[in-house]
Amino acid sequence: MTRTKRSLLATAAAALAVTGTLISAPPASAADPAAAEVSPHAAQTIDNIGASGAWWVNDLKNFDPKVQARVAKLLFSSKGLDLSNYRYNIGGGGTAVTTPSRAPEDFLNADGTYDWSRDKGGRTFLKYAARYGVEDLVGFVNSAPAAWKTNSQSCGGYLNAKNTADFAKYVADVTDHFAEQGAKLDYISPFNEPNNSFDSCGQEGMLVPVDQRDDIVRALGAEQRARHQKTGIIADESSSTVSFNTEVPQWIAQPGTAQYVSKLAHHTYNNPGDDQLAKINETATSVGRQPWATEICCFGKGGTGWAQEYDPTIDGGLNLSKIIYKDFATAHDSAFHWWVALSEMIGSDPYAKNGDGWNDGLIYYDPNYATNGNQTLYFTKRYYALGQYSKFVKPGAVAHNVTGAPSGVDVTAYDLPHARTSSRGGTPMGKWVVVVNNHNTTDTSLNLHFNSRTPVKAQQAVRTSATEDWANVTKPAVGEEGQVSATLAARSITTYVFDQKGHDTTAVTGARQGKQSGKCLTADASGAAISTCTGAEAQSWTYDVSGALKGSNGCLTAGSSGLVTAACADSAGQRWQLNANGQIVSESSGKCLDVSGQATADGSKVILYSCTGGSNEVWTKQ
């Protein structure tokens, strides 16, 4: 059961082992100034992409071992999703929980000893994940064991403050046990959706007030440190971005807490807009930790908001891909975790949309399997949509923002830096992965420019659509100047993989026009303002690999007192992200370039302000 970390080169090669014949495309034309552009400056590094093993494992323990093995292969192998993260539910015992499959066993006996034979289903798939070499295993807790809860149940109530140390010891003991079994937990999440008590008892859960979260984190962190465990802590798994953005800064600022927090975890059940997603980045920047999107499901009825529906079609697949795109491109999350990998909430028809089921799974099984013996697995397009990312965008991939995409098209680009050295030496080779969602009901042309001095070669194109599942399709044409040309099938998700010799990039130069004012970002002595677009030197900005915006007077700089112009020095305050939605975001603060007071007159000041999603924060290249 030894876990072996796979190299990015090996996993990329495995991901491309999809059968099919490729058809050559005509040569691409020279660089098109109107093309979408891959930013020369790197954004966040991707840690992992995964899903949860909650609940369904308690049903699957009753399935034929051959079906269990097939499920593991579908989730963890290179022929399946090739997940780089798996979330194992550390159960709270299920006391008083009314849904049997949502009542996972804990390991704690009444006398304080452990029974490690419990939780057969959970242990089975955790071991499978470890055997397949899933890069990051996360243990997450919905409820502490009932004996330590204020209501003596696994749903509702709080963790008794006097049992905080007991709980920390328990989680550390579980971590040690699985490490000895060859399934090392890389991260622990000690509480989940802490604002929701789940006192209806349909599942496990517990309230964790803001002023208790830091106590639990410190207790667990200290216990881990005393044992020399190399397991990170992620928190606080808020169910909404609003809670995350308002509450994380409160508990993590308590003395001695931040040192134990490896990543910040949030859910997106409030269907956040660009303002809230950008605020995640600002919150994470303010505390110096990368954010992870660790849970989402159950959208439907044509949108990405919470709604009851079972939808196995490309509509559901595209909605999932839209959420991943937004999390990576606007929130700058470093991880994306779907809720449950499998579900029995299939409703009245496993092959068609219906209002009786739920979009909580990727693969489904018959809820009546125990009485009718049906162990058939039913696939959704969400399964294949997640795979368009998880099979190709591997841990260590570096996201690069893509601006200027056609309407109805989402584009994200990922550089795989560790794939750069050939195993036989010689010229270093790079790999780029580009994932494209076409939400349009018609085929759409995409021209994409890599801003590269070195040749880019198309290696593979894989597509999921209404009629295709990870199908090999025509490779895009690539011109001499790093220009890629492709035709995107209607309502589809396509992943392109490119080789690149060397890694030189060119800077992007041009004016930036405000959407609301129609005026251009203009350098002045104190920083920047807006003025009528004239093509003047003060309106020309060069954006380079360092993330600097260089104007006529120097580099635009986010200082302690606001925006200033200063000599270019590659300082933190001089690094900017040009988001796909037009936001220009300071890497040092997470705030946006904003026209103060939504003014439109020439000379109106440009300031740093929390990203609101307003049109006075949208800038397009001229």
Automatic annotation (TrEMBL):
Query: Which molecular function GO terms apply here?
Result: hydrolase activity, hydrolyzing O-glycosyl compounds
Q: Which residues form the Ricin B lectin domain?
A: 505-622
SMART domains, A to Z: RICIN
Keywords for the protein's UniProt record, in alphabetical order: Hydrolase, Signal
May I ask which residue range the UniProt record assigns to the signal sequence? 1-30
Question: Which chain regions cross the lipid bilayer?
Answer: none
Q: Which PANTHER family match?
A: ENDO-BETA-1,6-GALACTANASE, ENDO-BETA-1,6-GALACTANASE-LIKE DOMAIN-CONTAINING PROTEIN
Which named protein is this? Glycoside hydrolase
